[in-house]
Amino acid sequence: MRAHNFCAGPAALPVAVLERAQTELLNWEGAGASVMELSHRSPEFVGIAERAEAALRRLMNISDDYAVLFQQGGASQQFASVPLNLSSPGDVVDQVVTGQWSKKALAEGRRLTQVNVASSSESSNFSTIEPEANWSRTNNAAYLHYCPNETIGGLEFSFVPESNSPLVADMSSTILSRPVDVSQFGVIYAGAQKNIGPAGLCIVIVEKELLGRARADIPAMLNWQTAADNDSMYNTPPTFGIYLSGLVFEWIESLGGLDAMYERNKRKADTLYGLIDASDFYANPVDPQYRSLMNVPFTLADDALDKLFLSRAEEAQLLNLKGHRSVGGMRASIYNAVEQSSVDALCEFMHRFEKENG
Ligand SMILES: *Cc1c(COP(=O)(O)O)cnc(C)c1O
Description:
This protein is of the alpha/beta class. The chain folds into two domains: about 15-255, 3-Layer(aba) Sandwich (Aspartate Aminotransferase, domain 2); about 255-355, Alpha-Beta Complex (Aspartate Aminotransferase, domain 1), CATH 3.90.1150.10. The chain contains nine helices and 14 strands. β6 (about 150) and β7 form a beta hairpin. It binds pyridoxal-5'-phosphate. Pyridoxal-5'-phosphate (PLP) binds next to α3.
């Protein structure tokens, strides 16, 4: 039996996708080999990659003005790739800091370019977002970087910032959870292991107009232009990850696309936040208007009960509910592949635990 998996990443994958991969694992569509054993230059694999890209373009309605790149190195590598591709010596970039991930992006940005922190939520312990009108922006910034959903703090933007400079978004934990208007962004990037596929792949969606701005000394592997010119095959790409992500994209399409995902996700989040809000035993520290759809952190009234909660949860086949080591407490990540039935099982368990220990 498969357990209910609330892992923040690498996260749960759709059972239908895993089953499909299982049936074609040894012999992919008569090729006589698994996807992992095909040359990345073979017509079979090139077709797999093209199909994956086409499905993502349909899902997110990505126009031909944008390149879709399959990169490695995770979202963390993009923290460096962004300044190296988009800023030149003398430029200033704006960064918004709303949690641990945008803070890491800030540290990397500072090593490689000149950064203005346009807004920081640190004084609220990353529990809210400063109104945009109060941000201090740079005129002619090379770009504005932000993280629409902070995976650790469970803080999610309810708006897309206005920007005269290209908007760069780390969407690792929110991509495909709801519809977005790609045309509002210069760059969207996302590590695959939250809401797309297995770890080892990072998707970069970049406006073609922004290619060619990289500084001369950028490593070839970090240069988006190099990736775009080579259809993401400058070197050997993460072939199995691309294949599996393609299956996930088609799975989302089969369920009705991103509008349908949003409905499913909203229902799951409402169920869980509803329980937390109705209880004096559980609490969520985030400003309600900025609560994450995907990552739900919560605390128990008495943190001496944390250990017991986690061990009982595990006995009930509810896995990976421990909060990030930097914030403690609990966190349930309820990405696309986490079914309503898993959230219902979690809520039932939380009710019972409160009754017995509250
Ligand atoms: C997980 C995560 C990262 C780091 O991703 P890696 O692929 O491990 O580098 C960065 N940003 C956000 C928002 C994340 O959720």
